[in-house]
Amino acid sequence: MELFKELLNYDEYLKQNPFHQNLEVNLKDYGEVDQKIVSEAYFNVDSETNIPCSAELDDLIRLHYLVTSRKVTTILEFGVGKSSIMFDHALEQNKIKYSDFVQKNLRRSNPFECHSVDNNEKWIEVTKSINPSIKNVTFHCCPCYVSSFNDRICTLYDNVPNICPDLIYLDAPDQYSPIGDVRGISTNNPDRVPMAADILTFEHFLLPGTLIVVDGRTANARFLETNLQRNWIYNYSKEYDQHFFELSEKPLGIYNQKQIEFCLGSELLNTYINS
User: Fold this and answer.
1) pLDDT tens, 83-103?
2) How far apart are alpha carbons 61 and 17 in whole angstroms?
3) Domain ranges in the chain?
4) What are the φ/ψ torsions at residue 68 (nearest 5 degrees)?
5) 138-159 confidence digits (pLDDT tens)
6) Were 181 and a residue from 95, 186, 191, 255 both cysteine, which residue would form a disulfide, CB within 3.0 to 4.6 Å?
7) Residues 68-273, CATH architecture
8) What is the 3-state secondary structure of the chain?
9) Residue 71 backbone class (left: φ over 0; alpha: ψ -120 to 50; beta: rest)
10) Per-residue pLDDT tens for 38-56?
């Protein structure tokens, strides 16, 4: 994919960016870092599970690469876990390299911050315990409800952090934890699928250049693709089982233009201007 055209060697990238150490992952035990881990059929839809998902280094390496290669400043993450710790590491690298420039030249009120949303306090505490020294991530325990968007049944978090992210990572909620139903319908069934609509409710606030990554959740990604109103470039990778939405529009003003040029480069800026 174009997004990963310079990610040529996963092993080498991890050597240069050893975030796995913060996850307590032993590479000798893990095996090939670019292997795709396939869970059992009901593991991800088991409402009784108390076992955290294991680290999937291939996914985490790609996400880390997106943060560093796109010089991401602000992340909104739905679903805490190993990715939160990885984002902390990637943002710290960006902060060291770019904080002076961002402070002096861009309008970013939450620079080098990841705001991670989850409706399960337990998983937040589990994530914190893995790496207590995490410093660039703010955790938000937010209740999640079965609701509707344009009369389509979905789920929505309450009290989502009021930030302007340039990267959004969607990996929550699960289908069991949202509260309530609409006319008897909810996602609380192992044959249902997650259907988060939060991004749709604040799409109009997002800046050109914003990237959304949806981990799996194909039905949810299709729901987003159908209902997003602006000029998003959508790509699905069957190999990664991930969906990517990039907001390709003319800059909103001088500061948005500066951000796009600094983070994504002049070539992509010109593509946006001519879109």
Assistant:
1) 999 999 999 999 999 999 999
2) 9
3) 68-273
4) -80, -40
5) 999 999 999 999 999 999 999 9
6) 186
7) 3-Layer(aba) Sandwich (3.40)
8) CHHHCCCCCHHHHHHHCCHHHHHCCCHHHHCCCCCCCCCCCCHHHCCCCCCCCCCCHHHHHHHHHHHHHCCCCEEEEECCCHHHHHHHHHHHHHHHHHHHHHHHHCCCCCCCEEEEEECCHHHHHHHHHHCCCCCCEEEEECCEEEEEECCEEEEEECCCCCCCCCEEEECCCCCCCCECCECCECCCCCCCCCCECHHHHCHHHCCCCCEEEEECCHHHHHHHHHHCCCCEEEEEECCCCEEEEEECCCCCCHHHHHHHHHHHCHHHHHHHHCC
9) left
10) 656 555 556 566 666 788 9
Provide the whole-model pTM: 0.94
Return the structure tokens found at 271: 């593509």
**Token output for 98:** 């770019």
